[in-house]
Structures are given as C-alpha cells and as structure tokens.
Design goal:
mainly alpha; 11 helices; 5 strands; about 5% strand; globular
Length: about 325
C-alpha cells in the first residue's frame, strides 16, 4: 500500500469513504446529486450551444456566461461521477496521483468560477456606467485575455497544493472521509506537519475569494450609484434587471462556499461531519445546476433563443 522514499511514505492509493456514518443511505443520497448533475450538464451544454448558435447572443456578457458554463460543467464533472461510483458500485479506491489531479482541478476550477463572476461584475459595471463605450472597451481580445489571466491565476496559485501534499508523509493510513480529494482532507490523513498547508490554503482563499468579492462589491457599489442617479424609474428598473441573474449567481456560488469555509474552521465540533461532506458536494454542484436555470429565466434574449431553438421562427 505504501511506496517509501527518502523523505516520506506515499500511499499507492487513497480510499474515499463517501459519507461516513450514512453508508446505508448512500444510494438515496446519490439520487438528488445524480439528477442535479444531469441538469447541470444538459443546461450548461445547451447554454453553450445556444450562445454559439444565436447571433443576438454574440456579446461580451454572453461570452463571459459561456466561460462560466464551461467552468461549471467541468467542475462538477471532476467530482460527481467519482462520487456516484462510490455510492453505486462501492468503487472507493483512487490512486495517489489521480487524487492529487482531482484536488488540483477542484480548487483551480472553483477559483476560476469566482474569477469569472468577478469579470461578469466588471462587465455589468462597464455596461451600465459606460454604455456608449461598452463594445469598444470589452472587445473580443480583452475578453479572451481576461479569461486567460483568470485561468492562469488559478493554475499558479493552486499548483503548490499538489507539491505541498506530495511532500507529506502518510503513515496514519490512506482513508479519506470524503467523496472527493480536496486539499485539507488529504493533508489531514498525513502524520506530518500540515501547518504550511493550512497557512497557504488560507492565503489562497484571501487572494482569490476575498479579492474577487471585494471587486464585485466595488463594482456593484458603482453600479448602484450610477443607477440611482437616473431620473427615470423605468430606466432604473431596466438597469437593475440586467444585473438580477448575475446577483443570483453570486448568491448561489458564495453562500455554500462561505458556509463550507466557516463551518469547517469554526464549527467542526458542533456540525456533524456528514453535513460538512454533503454541503461540500452541494457547493460544487449547486452553481452548475442553478446558473443555466437562473439565466434562462431572468434573461430575455436567452428565453427568446430557447423558444426559437425549440419551436423555430414560426413558434417564436
């Protein structure tokens, strides 16, 4: 089970234990996750097809939405199929390197999702505060560079997680009480000093999550000031309505994330462990499931595009 080297004991594989204490209910727990995953894949892939197919959606706001959809469907696909294999077929083994890969992609993609939400907030700021210069400021080149920088930020900040985890000695066993590999769940299996891992993890949370939330807050403060200065109530309503879907996406993404972070750090002894694990899975699955629905309901052009796609020009 272990491969020894000069500095540590490295397990050949980890065992992901699912939801400890609720093994008898694994199949029932899996059903809502399976249906949510199905909705997430179909919804986000449908959204991507619609944005590609419908020329009226070839605008900066929808390009950012496409980037969010790609991030969402990739994020939930890194964890949910593996979780379903644990629940349905009792396939709990994951190789050491595969666990590190999964850990990297989970954290990189969650950071990417946060970054895309920040870019979408800046998009709404430019659209409302500088409407006449909107298309000249947010050109295709600027959008591509912003997306690449957000991706690169995630890769550069999350990559050290794999090296920090790989250096640790794993001499206390190889059982991870979780459905997927995340940084601190893997680190806690180690018998080494994980203080550096914890400090770096907190630093990354500040550099990504707190920074993005600050940028979103500043953007919406400026948007609120610009909207409230409009003299027409109808104009204010229209301006606010363009932000509704994005605000819903922010709430759907950050509320489960903050709950997971704060309960993990401050409520570890008061909240049952299986609640932590279920919420951690919802944190990765809820935004990909809900974002296409929210944007489909709240965005007129997407609603019209869906109707045209389903019923043709005559039905539209």
């Amino acid at each position: 089970m272990f491969n020894s080297n000069s500095s540590s004991l490295t397990p050949a594989f980890f065992i992901l234990n699912g939801v400890p204490g609720m093994e008898a209910s694994h199949v029932w727990i899996s059903l809502p996750f399976f249906f949510m995953y199905l909705i997430a894949v179909l919804g986000n892939c449908g959204l991507l097809y619609l944005i590609h197919h419908e020329e009226s959606l070839h605008r900066p706001m929808y390009y950012f939405l496409a980037l969010l959809a790609i991030t969402d469907v990739t994020l939930c696909s890194t964890t949910i199929p593996n979780m379903l294999c644990i629940f349905w077929f009792n396939l709990k083994e994951i190789s050491f390197n595969a666990c590190l890969f999964q850990m990297f992609f989970v954290h990189m993609l969650t950071g990417m999702e946060s970054g895309v939400l920040m870019l979408m907030a800046l998009d709404r700021y430019v659209a409302i505060c500088y409407p006449l210069r909107y298309t000249t400021i947010l050109t295709n080149s600027v959008i591509a560079k912003a997306g690449f920088i957000t991706f690169l930020r995630g890769v550069m900040l999350i990559m050290p997680f794999t090296f920090l985890s790989k250096r640790l000695p794993y001499c206390q066993g190889n059982i991870i009480p979780h459905t997927y590999c995340d940084h601190m769940s893997v680190a806690k299996v180690s018998c080494g000093n994980v203080r550096i891992n914890a400090i770096y993890g907190l630093m990354v949370a500040l550099l990504i999550g707190v920074f993005d939330m600050c940028c979103i807050s500043v953007s919406y403060t400026m948007i609120l000031r610009a909207v409230m200065s409009l003299s027409s109530a109808d104009a204010r309503h229209k301006a606010f309505s363009t932000c509704t879907a994005h605000v819903c996406a922010i709430v759907i993404t950050y509320v489960p994330a903050l709950f997971t972070i704060f309960t993990h750090r401050f409520g570890g002894h008061t909240i049952p462990h299986h609640i932590h694990i279920i919420v951690a899975n919802l944190y990765l699955l809820l935004p990909p499931t809900m974002n296409p629905i929210v944007y489909g309901v709240k965005t007129k052009l997407i609603r019209e595009g869906v109707i045209k796609l389903l019923f043709g020009e005559k039905g539209f």
